[in-house]
Amino acid sequence: MGIVAEDAVNQFEALMNQVDEPLKKTFQNIHQGYPTGTLVRFLKAREWNVPKAHKMLVDCLNWRVENDIDNILAKPIVPTDLYRGVRDSQLIGLSGYTKEGLPVFAIGAGFSTFDKASVHYYVQSHIQINEYRDRVILPSASKKHGRHITSCVKVLDMTGLKLSALSQIKLLTIMSTIDDLNYPEKTNTYYIVNAPYIFSACWKVVKPLLQERTRKKIQVLPGCGRDELLKIMDYASLPHFCRREGSGSSRHSGNETDNCYTLDHPFHQQLYNYIKQQASIIAPAGPYKQGSIHVHLPESAAEESEIAKTIESELQKFGNQTRLTDSLDALKVSDNRN
């Protein structure tokens, strides 16, 4: 750490020593014994501007207190059938670890439909996975490798991406904003695989809108990305959709232990059991409370709003072109028949 960066951390630390006790308590849940590393993450997110980083972190701590985020891992989504529906439509899972020990999260961006529950259930599930990653998975990985591991990698499968993604943009923007404001610098690299033409068309116009720091984290890999990903992880840690070309991001693979999206996968079983265990500690005698947790949904930042509008516009253009092509093809068929 350079002199300037060290000075920024010291200034930031002095400011954080002045916050009220409730904020200090939730800060402990964030830093997990590594406060300096957390300060650095927020400084990076605000280009090492100490006042801006301080405001960002204090806003994050207030958000956590107001929405009881510290206890969200004690609030299961019940009944199980509802949670299974969430898992079948919000495709995410832990497929393994990189050779350096970073968790590998697989995300079925193309086939996720988010249509089995309300927005609040999906936001609750998203935050729970974030918190489980930060409080359980990353500390465990750090202990195993003997060094502080603070981030993960994400492999996004674009198989199945369609114009219907328009209906998901608002929810995805909410989740992205929650991550940007409250979980900055938690993803080391985003790997995009199985990208169809519709993604490539959107990526061309979205890429220039991203901050340079974000652009550097995104890598669009050819095909299923297997050969490139095997440079940083073993075959066993590859997401199932990266193991052979054209395999795609099926919701239901033949081997349920390989499909890290399903509730039957060890990762989701461990997560679900952990949440039930935490719930029983807080309320050992009472039944699990049904209903989603209504977390305050943040307003999108200007950059994210612009990106969402751009994606929406490009998808609409693509849809118009597709409909025009279909109409012309229909006319050709009709002319041939006549």
UniProtKB/TrEMBL annotation:
Pfam families: CRAL_TRIO (PF00650), CRAL_TRIO_N (PF03765)
Transmembrane domains' residue ranges: none
Domain CRAL-TRIO: 79-239
Top-level taxonomic group: Eukaryota
SMART domains to which the protein is assigned, alphabetical: CRAL_TRIO_N (SM01100), SEC14 (SM00516)
Alphabetical list of InterPro entries matching this protein: CRAL-TRIO_dom (IPR001251), CRAL-TRIO_dom_sf (IPR036865), CRAL/TRIO_N_dom (IPR011074), CRAL/TRIO_N_dom_sf (IPR036273)
Protein name: CRAL-TRIO domain-containing protein
Protein's organism: Vitis vinifera (Grape)
